[in-house]
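quick one: zinc ion bound model?
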Amino acid sequence: MSDARDDAAGLPPAPEVVQMEVGLLQNFCEILYCSETREAAIVDPAWEVDRLLAEVERLKLKVTTALITHTHNDHIEGVDLLVEKTGAVVVVNPREAAAVRAPGRTLVDAVDGRDIPIGKRGVRALETRGHTVAGTCYLADGYVVTGDVLFVGGCGRTDFQGGDTAEMWKSLQRLMRLPEETRVYPGHDYGETPTSTIAHEIRTNRFLRCATFEEFRALRERKRG
Ligand SMILES: [Zn+2]
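yep, here:
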């Protein structure tokens, strides 16, 4: 496990970020884009691809990339449509790629530590297991897209297939070592605010306040949802 100082070291310049809530499960998608080249990535395209693309058009962007945090259906339901409409390449951890593999897909492996270019900007893939077998957070200079690993005031469940409470603990510990001002963009709108910061979560998120893994496991495995 690399040190978080390393996780944030030498990051490319950060893409602009637009957060959008979609669907009936309070999913968040993000549009990440380069303000110079107007190239864009969409994180976890689902439910309202037409609305996402309308925003893309309004901002005069060109979607080149879909970034997948994990392959639960509520996060990838719109990948086919997005690829069909834009030709975007799909960035996903190789251990979860089977869920999005289909004719015509161009897949890029979101292996740990890989920098994914978005125009002249970019984000870094951090493999964060625990909610699924190989979920990915995308770290930019100043913010992190956390999927269903870290929520505002919560963390993802570990009782689905591929979930692992010990891996979730390790993933959260890793996120906690990011620079504390790092803004958190979670995969669902489950908190008091749509985004937060690492510092705020360390202070207030009961899953991050656990002093030991045993305490965390008791809390995570007791509390479902
Ligand atoms: Zn999920």
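The CA atoms of residues 71 and 100 lie 8 Å apart.
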